[in-house]
Design goal:
The structure holds two protein chains of two kinds. Chain A is mostly helical. Chain A is built from 15 helices and no strands. In chain A, helix 8 runs antiparallel to helix 13, helix 9 packs across helix 10 and helix 10 crosses helix 11. The radius of gyration of chain A is 23 Å and the shape is globular. By secondary structure, chain B is an alpha+beta fold. In chain B, strands 2-3-1-4 form a four-stranded antiparallel sheet, with helices on one face. The longest helix of chain B is centred in the middle third of the chain and has 27 residues. The chains are: A mainly alpha, B alpha+beta. At the A-B interface, helix 1, helix 5, helix 7 and helix 15 of A face helix 1, strand 2, helix 2, helix 3 and helix 4 of B.
Chain lengths: 454, 182
């Protein structure tokens, strides 16, 4: 399974690197690089959106979810669309850090750190929505099984309760996996930092790591085991998210294809977000010799593959709708194609299925501007997919007399764009205070790292 | 070698090397010479280094397994106790012990406990966090987080002798040799 490059493929690591030079390049981007105007502007935009988010959430808590476009029959709306979209984006980070580690795809070593950070921030954005959607978010702890004075417990036969367990476990394991990976790098930062306060902070975070062979042995054993348990975990998370739909009897939701199709879609949008972050980061921080074209091309190929699985999902949704012989399923599909939301459905097909096919062309995979644009297109497409699944099915289910129409309000948009700002601001802060590339794992990529016979 | 003091004034002798290969060969030589209380230090994991100093097995996988078992059992036990014993509630005629519905939280609890047990177990076995360590007294040792490799033979080793051990370590042709004060 080793990743052997073709003769004309770009390398995983640029030429002329040493242990020291890689350490300096990655650490100096945090420690000595002056704060640039571009970074400040990016952070300002992110924080501006966070301010809008705070205002919208405050208003939401004062008035209630009635400020959103949701109403019966469409009770889920933007909150659940955004929840599924964000949690899906997070999945690529775990895929890169865990599954590619198990498959010995060492090219992942330069992108796993910020992909894991992306996972954490995406899960944080995702986690906000169910809480905000609750109506009474101050009672959110009712979701957890605790011995309450009311004597009642969560309903464990409900996929919504499964989701609480899946998402909170995912957030916890992602956070510890990320931190464990950071400890040896914090030790590097501790030794490289010149300001006493910075030294102290990195020193505390680094836990006094000293690179002992005994420590490394236990560390590596744990790291591979964490990857081993994170792999079924990440697959379970979007499976459970899809159960929120598949276990109901709503037309268009009650299908067995949902779990694999949701997981593939999650990885699809997640890699799109990885590229949206990696392309500017490698450019502005001059990391082209570590995040090479190879990484971008491999990510593009994974997007292409998962995009085809998603396409298969769309095809079978349509096929089964007619093959099932169920009037409601058939109507659901006709409603998607020709109903009030048809323009969203066909945009979804265009953005998610048609346009990404240009990734078959090697020249486009080798062009960062194209990759960036296509990744944005896929992110929008995957958001539309969740919109179509949730809104078309809920707005017109069984009885025409109880049909409705969903229109999002400005508060829906404010909170959605607010979380995008939160995500962006978190990423901007992350790349200034932590090594955005795993330094110790990059060192293992050098040929000198191997023990040779003498 | 009975002239070595019982509580030596130093922590050990530290030799610096330029490559992982040199470190592993030096560690093997030290092990062959009979030293046991020693450790190799490197900027990235080197499988051969822990083998060379005679550290073959770690209990981390066992801790992860036990954590996973505990998590799975407590996850399922919690749901069973709630639904069958504490508050039996007839939901659509389903059995109280609807075990297939309990699989997802059981699985998630297994993963959660296995992961947390592993992380805390690994740090505990490694004795981390440890803000102070005698090795940090050696200035050159800071490069262990960058591009240098170190072998430290500890004074606690029964075979340790200030003069002999130092001579032995010089024979390994290191970049530098330092005494590590407490």
């Amino acid at each position: 399974m080793m990743d052997v490059p073709w003769p004309d493929e770009p390398p995983v690591l640029g030429p002329g690197q040493t242990f020291g030079s890689m350490t300096d390049t990655i650490a100096d981007a945090v420690l000595t690089r002056p704060i640039g105007l571009g970074w400040l502007a990016g952070l300002a935009i992110g924080m501006g959106l966070v301010a809008i988010l705070m205002a919208a959430v405050t208003y939401l808590f004062l008035i209630g979810v009635g400020i959103w476009g949701i109403n019966i029959p469409v009770g889920w709306g933007f909150a659940i669309i955004n929840f599924v979209w964000w949690i899906g984006i997070g999945h690529a980070g775990t895929l890169i850090s865990a599954i590619l580690l198990l498959l010995k795809q060492t090219w992942r070593n330069s992108i796993n750190r910020f992909a894991e950070a992306m996972t954490l921030f995406a899960v944080a954005c995702a986690g906000m929505f169910p809480l905000l959607h609750m109506g009474r978010p101050w009672l959110a702890y009712w979701m957890f099984p605790y011995p309450s004075s009311m004597g009642v417990w969560p309903q464990f036969r409900s996929p919504l309760v499964w989701d609480v367990f899946a998402v909170s476990t995912y957030a916890t394991i992602s956070a510890v996996f990320w931190y464990v990976g950071l400890v040896p790098d914090f030790a590097t930062m501790r030794e490289k930092a010149s300001h006493p306060l910075t030294k102290k902070v990195y020193g505390i975070l680094g836990l006094g790591w000293r690179g002992s062979a005994r420590h490394w042995k236990r560390y590596e054993a744990l790291y591979i085991l964490l990857a081993g348990i994170a792999t079924p975990l990440v697959l379970s998370v979007h499976t459970v998210v899809s159960f929120d739909f598949a276990i109901s009897i709503v037309p268009g939701w009650h299908t067995t294809i949902f779990p694999p199709y949701f997981v593939a879609g999650a990885i699809y949008s997640g890699f799109a977000m990885v590229l949206v972050l990696a392309i500017p980061i490698r450019h502005y921080y001059h990391l082209e010799s570590m995040i090479t074209m190879r990484h971008l091309q491999n990510s593009a190929k994974i997007m292409l593959a998962t995009g085809l699985i998603v396409a298969y999902g769309y095809f079978f949704e349509a096929f089964i709708a007619f093959y099932s012989g169920s009037t409601y399923e058939r109507f659901m599909m006709q409603n998607r194609w020709f109903g009030p939301y048809a323009v969203f459905y066909w945009s979804l097909i265009l953005l998610n299925l048609v346009i990404p096919q240009v990734l078959w062309v090697p020249k486009i995979r080798a062009n960062t501007a194209w990759l960036f644009l296509i990744s944005l297109v896929i992110l929008v497409g995957m958001w539309l997919e969740r919109f179509i699944i949730i809104i078309t099915s809920l707005s017109r289910d069984f009885l025409p007399s109880s049909w409705g129409h969903y229109v999002a309000t400005r508060w829906d948009y404010a909170i959605f764009f607010g979380t995008i700002g939160f995500f962006a601001a978190a990423i901007f802060i992350f790349i200034r205070i932590m090594p955005a590339i795993s330094i110790f794992e990059m060192r293992t990529l050098l040929p000198e790292a191997e023990v040779k016979a003498k | 070698m009975n002239h070595a003091p019982l509580s030596p004034a130093i922590y050990g002798i530290l030799a610096e090397f330029d490559s992982s290969t040199d470190l592993v060969y030096a560690a093997r030589a030290a092990y062959a010479a009979g030293y046991r209380k020693m450790d190799a230090y490197s900027p990235f994991p080197i499988e051969e280094a822990s083998e060379a100093i005679g550290f073959h097995k770690t209990r981390v996988p066992l801790i992860v397994l036990l954590g996973g078992l505990l998590g799975g059992l407590s996850g399922f036990g919690l749901q069973y106790w709630i639904n069958v014993i504490s508050y039996p509630l007839n939901i659509g005629g389903k059995p109280y012990d609807s075990w297939p519905a309990f699989i997802v939280p059981t699985f998630e609890m297994t993963i959660l406990f296995a992961g947390l047990a592993g992380v805390f177990g690994m740090f505990a076995l490694n004795g981390l966090p440890m803000p102070y360590h005698p090795l940090f007294n050696v200035d050159r040792f800071s490069d262990v987080t960058r591009d240098k490799f170190f072998l430290c033979v500890e004074a606690a080793d029964p075979q340790f002798d200030l003069v002999d051990t130092q001579r032995f370590m010089e024979s390994l042709k290191p970049l530098s040799i330092s005494e590590v004060p407490h």
